[in-house]
Design a protein that fits this description.
336 residues, alpha/beta, eight-stranded parallel β-barrel, 13 helices, globular
Length: 336
């Protein structure tokens, strides 16, 4: 395994990190013995950063990771998050503090190495409904009693070491404003073979959400990026390319999204011609960006973990592969 420094912090993380989210399902839906087996093997392979959230299985992923690490006797770097919903707007700072205390109890640790706000910043007040938390008004980050105050309180209390937040797309100006505070060391963003706009100017023909080159913005502020959903929700895999079923633990794909994605994924099949999988190619592409600290792998099985942990050793995609990718992006994945 290879390692990278997170911005100007003193954290050094494995290039392939362990994502505990519900899409892969392992840390939410697998039995405890399988969770223990895969977490132990991840540590053996050198993965030292575990990305979690109270929203993953309504606390189950945090609790299951805490149990596994205690049984193994390991203490890797741990990230968790805070979701701010409509019901929390009257006391955002208090909610951030309480949420972290609850996460620490589930994880059975005294402090988080990284805490992230799971909402993406928005220049306008979002229409938060029900349990929704995808965005949070920038004012609610920055105002007295807001999210940033909660983060700063936790840092001074020794409950967290560093902080970050999530990018949701079409929010580059708000992202830059948050980075300007100097409070955040890590952003989470998707940067994929289907949508590379978090790490470059969006090709005009690509009909995708624009992430506004936020990885370079993070670099310019002494921060780094962790890449979530590196396989675009499971579409950048040989199984999807060849019409095979998903792993039983994995979340089912949206049929309409799958129908839209299949043409694009088939256009990327050339990346498997050297004998490696499409998933490996997706990781190699991501890790070629110097602003990326790690790829947050979502593993449903031990086999997936062992395959994807080998990606850093293979280096970046070739110049000819990158040229073909750029041509596809410039054409919006249109047929030649």
């Amino acid at each position: 395994m290879r390692y990278r420094k997170v911005g100007a912090s003193d954290l050094t993380v494995s290039e392939v990190a362990f994502g505990c989210g519900g899409n892969a399902g392992l840390m939410v839906r697998a039995d405890r013995s399988e969770q223990l087996r895969v977490v132990a093997r991840a540590l053996d392979l050198g993965l030292n950063y575990f990305d979690n959230s109270p929203d993953y299985g309504d606390g189950a992923a945090e609790q299951n990771l805490g149990i596994a690490l205690k049984e193994i006797g390991a203490r890797p770097l741990i990230n968790s998050k805070v979701e701010i919903r409509r019901a929390n707007l009257a006391d955002i700072k208090g909610h951030v503090i309480r949420s972290v205390e609850e996460s620490l109890a589930r994880l059975q640790v005294d402090a988080l190495d990284m805490l992230q706000i799971h909402n993406g910043p928005s220049l306008e007040p979002p229409d938060l409904r029900g349990a929704g938390y995808r965005q949070l008004w920038l004012e609610d980050f920055l105002r007295p009693g807001g999210a940033c105050e909660g983060v700063e309180h936790l840092r001074k209390a020794g409950k967290i070491r560093y902080a970050g937040f999530i990018c949701r797309g079409d929010d580059a100006r708000a992202v830059d404003t948050l980075l300007d505070t100097g409070l955040f060391s890590l952003i989470n963003a998707p940067y994929t073979l289907l949508n590379p706009s978090a790490g470059m100017a969006k090709p005009a023909a690509l009909r995708v959400k624009d992430f506004g080159d936020v990885i370079r913005a993070a670099q310019s502020h002494g921060a780094s990026a962790a890449i979530y959903s590196p396989l675009a929700g499971g579409f950048l895999t040989d199984d999807f390319l060849h019409g095979a079923a998903r792993h039983p633990l994995a979340r089912a794909a949206d049929p309409l999204q799958a129908q839209r994605a299949i043409h694009q994924v088939k256009a990327l099949a050339f990346l498997t011609e050297g004998g490696n999988s499409l998933a490996i190619a997706a990781y190699r592409f991501i890790l070629s960006h110097p602003g990326v600290a790690c790829v947050l792998g979502g593993f449903s099985s031990l086999e997936q973990l062992q395959e994807l942990a080998s990606a850093p050793d293979l280096g970046p995609l070739s110049s000819s592969e990158m040229t073909r990718l750029e041509m596809l992006w410039s054409a919006g994945f249109a047929d030649p």
